[in-house]
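can u do me a favor
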């Protein structure tokens, strides 16, 4: 056992269902390595390749989908974790798993299912991720024959919990985000054993920051290549309105101007419009790399300055300097204004929400007849209408963008 592994005790390595070491010829994998492998081999992980990140995966060969985004988040999380001395396998696994619960059409699909699931406990991508990891993914069962999902260790499951509270416990600042449905509470209470209410372990904080860094930088990159963003000709007045609307309502124009000036001072910030050449793409990739390094380096320095470590579980917290967070947020605002608020995309999103609403409706009407076998079993065991609605929501949430369209065409010709 290496030094970092030794920082995690038996409580952190415990699984819901105990598993003895396997007798195999190959060297035995350590518990957190096994966790990572289980997520990589999960069906819900493979499906991310066909789920929307910002624009649909079928629209362009270059743009990121949920799978490529998750791989990039994992790389950032692993590098930052290694620099901090946190277990890299735990944070990488959490990053790989962080979007498993996203339904078809990304956050737009999430909004549609949330509206449909009001009476059965709501829908939230992070809560759905926990449901997949502890129930819906098939790997292990308990003594009663009930699925416990991938049966990951406590430390890994805790690191996957971005919002460690239920819908009814969500703080006002969470803006409706939550990490567990009421009927998944037993698994949640088990993984949170010994943790203070509402506090995230440092591994979850690393995963969350890596997610923010990845999509703030990569969404701008994708938007630039798609011709929607020109970093040399930003309409700052309009972008700042988007930043205030989406992220920082109290931000001033002058304050945001200062943030943009710092970003423009990065040596690889473009001085001419993207031209689609290999040289132009190389320059854009250099900017992406420099920004990721800038943000993670700043956080690493601030975290080391605030505490001595070790940076494990609940021993300390990640420190994100206000200046760094402002820079990340400005990049998010640029992508939001030029990509997410694009009129064509907004119109498409309306139809996507209608499609999911119609699909859920017809599946409920057909009394479970068209559900996949595992969900048909869940339907048969559901005690009431709310439980049956949850089964249908679970089914639809597993679908990719393409399969949601195919199911809709088949059931609603």
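np, heres the sequence
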């Amino acid at each position: 056992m290496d030094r970092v592994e030794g920082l995690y005790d038996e409580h952190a390595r415990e699984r819901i269902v105990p598993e003895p070491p396997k007798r195999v010829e190959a060297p035995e994998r350590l518990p957190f390595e096994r966790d990572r492998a289980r997520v990589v081999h999960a069906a819900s992980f493979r499906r991310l390749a066909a789920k929307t990140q910002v624009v649909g995966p079928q629209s362009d060969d270059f743009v990121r989908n949920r799978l490529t985004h998750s791989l990039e988040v994992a790389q950032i999380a692993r590098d930052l974790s290694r620099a901090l001395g946190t277990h890299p396998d735990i944070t990488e696994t959490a990053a790989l798993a962080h979007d498993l619960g996203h339904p078809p059409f990304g956050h737009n699909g999430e909004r549609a299912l949330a509206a449909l699931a009001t009476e059965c406990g709501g829908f939230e991508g992070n809560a759905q991720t926990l449901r997949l990891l502890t129930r819906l993914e098939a790997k292990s069962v308990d003594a009663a024959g009930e699925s416990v999902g991938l049966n990951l260790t406590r430390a890994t499951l805790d690191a996957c919990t971005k919002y460690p509270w239920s819908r009814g416990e969500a703080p006002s600042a969470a803006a409706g985000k939550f990490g567990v449905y009421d009927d998944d509470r037993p698994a949640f209470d088990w993984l949170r054993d010994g943790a203070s209410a509402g506090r995230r372990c440092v591994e979850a904080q690393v995963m969350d920051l890596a997610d923010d860094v990845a999509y703030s930088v990569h969404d701008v990159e994708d938007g630039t290549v798609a011709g929607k963003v020109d970093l040399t000709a930003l309409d700052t007045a309009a972008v700042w309105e988007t930043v205030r609307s989406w992220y920082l309502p109290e931000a001033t124009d002058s304050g945001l101007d200062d943030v943009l000036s710092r970003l423009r001072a990065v040596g690889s910030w473009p001085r001419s419009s993207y031209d689609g050449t290999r040289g132009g793409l190389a320059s854009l990739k250099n900017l992406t790399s420099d920004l990721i390094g800038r943000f993670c380096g700043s956080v690493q320095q601030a975290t080391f300055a605030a505490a001595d470590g070790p940076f494990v579980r609940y021993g300390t917290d990640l420190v994100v300097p206000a200046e760094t967070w402002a820079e990340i947020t400005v990049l998010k605002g640029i992508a939001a204004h030029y990509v997410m608020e694009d009129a064509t995309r907004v119109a498409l999103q309306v139809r996507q929400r209608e499609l999911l609403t119609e699909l859920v409706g017809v599946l409920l009407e057909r009394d479970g007849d068209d559900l996949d076998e595992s969900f048909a079993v869940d339907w048969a065991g559901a005690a009431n209408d709310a439980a049956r609605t949850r089964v249908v929501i679970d089914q639809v949430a597993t679908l990719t963008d393409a399969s949601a369209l195919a199911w809709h065409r088949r059931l609603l010709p």
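DSSP finds 18 helices and no strands in the chain. hope that helps!!
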